[in-house]
Amino acid sequence: MSSVSVKDLSLNFGHISVLKDLNLDIAEGEFLVLLGPSGCGKSTLLNCIAGLLDISDGQIFIKGKNVTWEEPKDRGIGMVFQSYALYPQMTVKGNLTFGLKNAGVAKDEIERRVARTADILQIQPLLERKPSQLSGGQRQRVAIGRALVRDVDVFLFDEPLSNLDAKLRSELRVEIKRLHQKLANTMIYVTHDQIEALTLADRIAVMKGGLIQQLDTPHAIYNHPVNRFVAGFIGSPGMNFLEGQLETGAGAVVKIGNMPVPIDRYVFSGSSQQHTGATVLGIRPEHIAFGDGAGAMPFSHEVDIEIVEPMGSDTLVWTRLDGQSLSFRVEAERPLQAGDRVRIGFDPARASLFDSATGNRI
Amino acid sequence: MSDHAALNVAAAGFDAIAEEVSGPRGAKPRRVLSRRNIFLYGTLILIAVYYLLPLYVMFVTSLKGMPEIRLGNIFAPPVEITFEPWVKAWATACTGLNCDGLSRGFWNSVRITVPSVIVSIIIASVNGYALANWRFKGADIFFIILIVGAFIPYQVMIYPIVIILREMGLYGSLWGLVIVHSIFGMPILTLLFRNYFASVPEELFKAARVDGAGFWAIYFKIMLPMALPIFVVAIILQVTGIWNDFLFGVIYTKPDTYPMTVQLNNIVNSVQGVKEYNVNMAATILTGLVPLIVYFASGRLFVRGIAAGAVKG
């Protein structure tokens, strides 16, 4: 049985359609990340699931129960917000118990749950403090505790780490993952940070313009993006896109300028094998081989280095292939300089081909 | 208080740093009597004196006897201080048939102001909260109508309200005036509260809803405790506005229920007999005392409340 299920959900603000016929099934205990740029509707979708926004059309089920018109408190959800949203005039304990008191939970049960939550999140010493006396990381811990203490089936996270600095963010990220492994609750997590998405998710839903572009495992989204948007959005530094012509038949190739890239090992999606014409070849910087390994690749070519960007653990090198900008990654130890002429190569089986006109994977 | 504490802490920290750094210590020396300071404070003092002069005249006149006033030197301090005018203004000055001074008007004003302030602020704060946080259908239209109401000239509404109050049987009573004040305070107060509550992060409201709090629970447990500054602003606006009101008081009440301002006018403008300037001055100061006290007592909170989102929105 799916834990959360969204059927044909639409949401309009006036004449503006924010979410369009969304369908989503989230399994029991799954960690689903909604990922997308600002304004793609990911937070809006989360608010709809939480019951904080009335939807225009469709249905929402949680644990098999139709909750489309239920109040947020009756949906069995806990929510964590970007700005923490702690009640400033209450102590940490007051924040944790506010929902329980509203629900009329017995006093000793409240004490038991607060103790357990404080134990899991290690916030016992903070219980009597006010939110203003806490650091950002502590505040977000308490905010997570407020969802935890309600003993709910589904956790909703609305960009919970975006207000924290980089170091704290990675710490709390691990903590959230640990929490998920321990509790095995269903979690829906909204973020625009692909690192968070890739590290936390069982499945990622990449959204754009109120539509889910791709819903799949992080591995599949990274390696087999369904369109140019997903391909470009995931991965840092971003995927290279090379314009070319696809020529099928015996020994199918993509011609980048006049260089033929053999694609006989490329796995076409569905029935698009017959496709010919303008095509975009996408290849990730980390999938481009350099130096000795390059010659062994099905496709290799000599290029001039334009720019070298050292990034600490490795170095990003910019060059041109048929006049089109291309970047690739090398180990930081390689002594490279702008103007060097080197051989690079890649295996087209690791590339992605997109229709130039539609941007869809072929 | 807290500001001082913070300053002390900061100062202590600064000293600690200063001790580690060799060289001259302490604040940068500044000449007190620089040309800039003389000009600046000279101007400020001059303007302050100019503004305070009428108050001074009122005060010294109210402490003089009539013979001394007739000498005509209004700036001279009283030779013989007497509190007789104050007593008379408060307790025995005559307006019409009543000869119990301003005291009657004072208590009338209290009985008008207190319920008006309470009623209008309670309603307006709930209004503002609902408009800011519960985006009900037609909220925008409702809000626009309310604000437009603030721009309709009073004169247009005076006579219709007389008729309405007469039909309700409240014309001439204190309660009639309380209703009028509450209604006229509504647009500006609702705007004030709406803007304040709109500045409260929306996620706080959402979190409370997920926690199962309803309309009133969120209002009382989340919003009210955070809204103290804006309540102080609203109370000051309403107390001074209603206390100083003359127009509604003179129209919607009758001599027995006249508020203090109307009664003051009747004392000062009485045409029979000798003009008792000292009594008039004492009566005027007495009437203005309440708003003055309110301002002095809550000035800092007032400024903080105004700054805390009253104009944001």
List keywords for this structure.
heterodimer; A: 362 residues; alpha+beta; Rossmann fold; OB fold (Dihydrolipoamide Acetyltransferase, E2P); 2 domains; 6-stranded mixed β-sheet; 5-stranded antiparallel β-sheet; elongated; B: 313 residues; mainly alpha; MetI-like fold; 74% helix; disordered C terminus; sugar transport (chain B); membrane (chain B); Permease of ABC sugar transporter (chain B)
Describe the structure.
Chain A has 362 residues and is of the alpha+beta class. Chain A has helices at residues 42-50, 92-102, 107-121, 136-148, 166-183, 194-200, 218-223, 228-233; strands at residues 2-13, 16-27, 31-35, 57-62, 65-66, 77-80, 154-158, 186-191, 203-208, 211-216, 240-247, 253-256, 259-262, 277-283, 288-290, 299-310, 314-321, 324-331, 341-346, 352-355. Chain A has eight helices and 20 strands. In chain A, the strands form four sheets. In chain A, strands 6-7-8-3-9-10 form a six-stranded mixed β-sheet, with helices on both faces. Chain A has a five-stranded antiparallel β-sheet with strand order 13-12-11-14-20. In chain A, a hairpin with a 2-residue loop joins strand 4 (57-62) and strand 5 (65-66). The two termini of chain A are 33 Å apart. Chain B has two domains: 2-82, no CATH class; 103-310, MetI-like (MetI-like fold). Chain B is 74% helix and 0% strand. Chain B has helices at residues 2-20, 35-62, 66-70, 84-92, 103-133, 139-151, 154-168, 174-199, 202-210, 215-226, 228-244, 247-252, 260-268, 277-310. The longest helix of chain B is centred in the last third of the chain and has 34 residues, at 277-310. Chain A binds chain B through residues 47, 50-52, 71-73, 77-79, 81-83, 85-89, 98-99, 102-103, 146, 150, 158, and chain B through 201, 203-204, 206-213, 217, 221-222, 225-226.
